[in-house]
Specification:
Strand order of the largest sheet: 5-4-3-6-9-11-10-12-15
Number of helices: 25
Helix content: 40-55%
Largest sheet: 9 strands, mixed
Shape: globular
Number of strands: 15
Distance between the termini: 49 Å
Strand content: 5-15%
Structural class: alpha/beta
C-alpha cells in the first residue's frame, strides 16, 4: 500500500504539470496521463517476459536469436516494437518531437493488439516537449514494477477522487478495491469457460481472474473467454488498456448498447460459467417496460412506481447475474448492504432465489473498503452446482470487524485474511484438503520468515556490539522454539518471544545511541570503524544502524501478524472441521432463513461474539466501534431514502 500511495503522490505531481502546461480540463488530461502509465507498465511486463524468453533462447553463430512478436503471443503477452518502448522514448534527444513519438508509440501498440484499436490516447502533440519529458521521468520509477493488480483502475480512482468527486459519486459508480475483487475470485474459483462482467468498469474482475487462472498453471487466455459491458465509453477504454497490459484478450462493449438494464449485448443469457460484478448501487429511474422487454428477469420485475420506473435497480442486477449463469455456473458480486433485507417485491424475488437452492455464500463487508465512499456492502455468491448436502443451506459470514486498517479512511483484507475467509468457505463446502494445505502454507511461510529473521537478528548483535548481551538469550530461545516446532500450532508461542525481542532491541538501541552521543569525535571514529568499516562519522553510523533495526522490527511485525492470522483460523476450526462461530459465521438452513422473513443479512444469523476484556487493543476496538456506527448511519440513510420515495409516490 505504501508503494501505491507513493505512486499516487507522483501522479498528483504529473497532474499539476499538465494543468500548468496545457489548457486541458481534469477530464481531458486524465486519459493522457494514464496513457503514459500504460506505456510504462506495458514496458515493465515486456521486459519481464523478454527475460523469460531469453532464458532458453537458441544461439546461432555465437549470437542469441532476437525475440519476435510470436514469442510474446505464445506467452499471452503484449509485444512492444522498439519505438513503443518506454526507454526509447525516455532517451530521445532533446530536439526530438516527443509528442509525435508518443503518438506513434500508441499507434504501434494498437497494431499489435486489435482490441486496442482506437482506444489509446493520441493527443500528445498538444503538449510541449519539456512537459512530456518531465512526465516520462516522473513515471520512470521502481514503484510501478512493484505493484500489481488493477493498477490502471486504481490510478483512475485516484484521479476521480482528487479532481472529480462529483463524477466519482455519480450513480454509485466507483472503483472496486482489490481485496474485494480477490475475495470474489477466491470463492468463485474460475477455472475455464465464459466469464461475464456486465458492469466491468476498468476491468479489475478480469485481471484478478487472469492471475488466479495463471497461478494454477493454465493460460488464462486459452482457458477463459472474457466478456464485458460498460456503459461509459471512457471506462471501457481503461478496461481494454488494463487487460492488454496483463496479456488478456476480451470482448468489451460500451455505449448505449452496453446499458445492461436494456441490453444483453453479448447474448449470454444462460451461457456463462462465471459472472462477477460490482454494479452501481441503488440506481433509480430505470424504465420498467424497457427493462422488462430486455428480459433476463427469471423472478420478475422489482417494484415499479407510478412513473412506470424501477426506483431501485439493485434487484434488476441480482436477477441478471442469476439469469446469465448456465446450469453449473457461479456468480459473485458486490451489492449495497441494504439489499439483503429490503422489503416489498425485493423480498419476493429473494424468496424465489432462495427456493432455487443456488444462493451459496453471503459476506458482510464493513465501512471504508472503497476509496471514495465510506459505506458497508455485501458480497453475494450463487452456485448452480452446489453439492446436495448443502443445497438447502446458505453460509453467512460477518466480516465487518475483520480487516486491516491501512489508514484513517481505508481498510482492506490482507493476503492472509483473504485466505482465512476463503478457508471458511472451503470447510462449508467440505473441501478439507484445501484447508489442510493452507495450514501447511502457513507453517512454511512462518518458518521461512523466521529463518530470515534470525539472520537479521545476528546482524543486530554485531551492530549493537557491547549492548547486545540482553538480546543473545532471546535469540537462543527463539532458535530453540523454531527447531522444536513440528506442528503449526507449536510456532504460536513465538509471538510473545518476538514481541519481547522488539522491545529489547528498542531499549538497547537507545543505550547504544546514548553512548555514542557522549563520545568525542576521535573516539567516535574508532568506535564506529570497529563495527562498520564502511562509515566514519556518528551520523552515518546511526543512519545505517537505524535502518537495519527498523527492517528487523518490520519483519518481526510481519511474522507476528502471520502467526496471529494462523492462530485466528485454527482456534476456530482446528485441523479442518467446519463449525458455526458466534459473531463470525453460520450455516443456516432455508427454514432458518424463512423464519427471518427471507433476510440475507449475515448479522441476523451469526450473532454477536462476546468481547474479551483482557488483551484488548484499544485502538483496534475504537476502529471497530467507529465502523459499526458508520454502518448503522448508512443503513439509516438508506431507510430515509426509501421513506422519502414512498412519500413521493403517495404525493406527500
Amino acid at each position: 500500500m505504501i508503494n501505491i500511495r507513493k505512486l499516487e503522490s507522483e501522479l498528483w505531481e504529473s497532474a499539476d504539470l499538465l494543468r500548468q502546461g496545457s489548457k486541458l480540463t481534469s477530464n481531458e488530461y486524465c486519459m493522457p496521463v494514464l496513457g503514459i502509465i500504460f506505456l510504462r507498465y506495458a514496458y515493465t511486463r515486456f521486459k519481464t517476459v523478454e527475460a523469460e524468453i531469453l532464458k532458453d533462447r537458441p544461439v546461432r553463430g555465437g549470437r542469441v536469436l532476437p525475440v519476435e512478436p510470436n514469442d510474446f503471443k505464445t506467452k499471452n503477452a503484449l509485444y512492444l516494437p522498439e519505438k513503443a518502448r518506454y526507454d526509447y522514448l525516455l532517451n530521445l534527444p532533446d530536439d526530438a518531437d516527443l509528442g509525435k513519438a508518443v503518438n506513434e508509440a500508441m499507434e504501434l501498440i494498437e497494431e499489435q493488439s486489435s482490441q486496442l484499436i482506437g482506444v489509446l490516447p493520441k493527443t500528445y502533440t498538444s503538449f510541449h516537449n519539456n512537459l512530456l519529458r518531465e512526465l516520462l521521468r516522473i513515471f520512470n520509477n521502481k514503484t510501478l514494477d512493484e505493484v500489481g493488480g488493477d493498477i490502471i483502475g486504481r490510478i483512475y480512482e485516484y484521479f476521480l477522487s482528487k479532481f472529480a468527486p462529483a463524477v466519482a459519486s455519480d450513480d454509485g459508480v466507483f472503483f472496486t478495491p482489490k481485496s474485494l475483487v480477490q475475495m470474489i475470485v477466491n470463492v468463485i474459483e474460475p477455472k475455464r469457460g465464459i466469464l461475464l462482467d456486465p458492469a466491468c468498469g476498468s476491468g479489475g474482475m478480469f485481471v484478478q481472474t487472469g492471475d488466479f487462472v495463471n497461478v494454477s498453471g493454465t493460460s488464462a487466455n486459452s482457458a477463459m473467454t472474457f466478456f464485458g459491458q460498460e456503459k461509459v465509453e471512457y471506462n471501457a477504454k481503461l478496461c481494454l488498456m488494463n487487460m492488454a497490459v496483463h496479456g488478456l484478450n476480451g470482448k468489451i462493449k460500451s455505449g448505449d448498447e452496453a446499458n445492461t438494464f436494456y441490453n444483453d449485448a453479448h447474448n449470454l443469457e444462460g451461457k456463462c460459467d462465471y459472472v462477477m460484478a460490482n454494479p452501481p448501487f441503488n440506481v433509480d429511474k430505470v424504465k420498467a417496460e424497457s427493462a422488462s422487454n430486455a428480459g433476463r428477469l427469471p423472478f420478475g420485475l422489482p417494484g415499479v412506481n407510478d412513473k412506470k420506473e424501477v426506483s431501485n435497480a439493485n434487484y434488476l442486477w441480482i436477477s441478471y447475474f442469476y439469469a446469465y449463469l448456465n446450469e453449473t455456473g457461479r456468480a459473485g458480486f458486490v451489492m449495497a448492504a441494504s439489499a439483503t433485507d429490503s422489503g416489498g417485491k425485493d423480498r419476493e424475488i429473494r424468496k424465489q432465489l432462495l427456493e432455487t437452492g443456488d444462493v451459496d455464500v453471503m459476506i458482510s463487508v464493513g465501512n471504508n473498503f472503497f476509496y471514495t465512499k465510506s459505506l458497508p456492502c455485501t458480497l453475494w455468491f450463487f452456485d448452480r452446482a452446489k453439492k446436495d448436502e448443502i443445497r438447502d443451506k446458505v453460509l453467512f459470514i460477518d466480516a465487518r470487524n475483520y480487516f486491516t486498517v491501512v489508514d484513517r479512511t481505508l481498510n482492506e483484507w490482507s493476503l492472509w485474511q483473504l485466505k482465512n475467509l476463503t478457508a471458511i468457505v472451503w470447510l462449508y463446502r467440505g473441501e478439507t484438503e484445501k484447508y489442510v494445505n493452507l495450514l501447511t502454507e502457513y507453517k512454511k511461510e512462518i518458518q521461512e520468515r523466521l529463518s530470515a529473521l534470525l539472520a537479521m537478528m545476528e546482524n543486530d548483535l554485531s551492530l549493537l556490539e557491547r549492548f547486545a548481551d540482553p538480546l543473545k538469550a532471546l535469540i537462543k530461545e527463539i532458535e530453540s522454539a523454531v527447531n522444536k516446532a513440528h506442528l503449526l500450532q507449536d510456532l504460536y508461542g513465538l509471538n510473545d518471544l518476538l514481541k519481547k525481542y522488539a522491545s529489547a532491541l528498542n531499549e538497547q538501541s537507545k543505550a547504544l545511541f546514548s553512548y555514542g552521543d557522549g563520545l568525542e569525535k576521535a573516539e567516535v571514529k574508532d568506535f564506529v570503524r570497529g563495527i562498520l568499516d564502511t562509515v566514519s562519522t556518528w551520523a552515518q553510523f546511526k543512519k545505517v544502524v537505524s535502518t537495519a533495526f527498523e527492517s528487523t522490527v518490520a519483519e518481526i511485525k510481519e511474522c507476528r501478524t502471520i502467526i496471529k492470522e494462523a492462530k485466528w483460523l485454527t482456534d476456530k476450526f482446528g485441523d479442518g472441521v467446519y463449525q458455526d462461530v458466534l459473531g463470525l459465521c453460520k450455516q443456516a438452513s432455508l427454514s432458518d432463513i424463512e423464519e427471518k422473513n427471507y433476510s440475507l443479512t449475515p448479522g441476523a444469523y451469526v450473532g454477536v461474539a462476546s468481547v474479551k476484556e483482557d488483551d484488548v487493543n484499544f485502538a483496534e476496538r475504537m476502529v471497530e466501534i467507529h465502523n459499526e456506527l458508520l454502518s448503522l448511519q448508512a443503513e439509516a440513510n438508506d431507510l430515509i431514502d426509501t421513506i422519502s420515495t414512498n412519500f413521493e409516490r403517495l404525493g406527500l
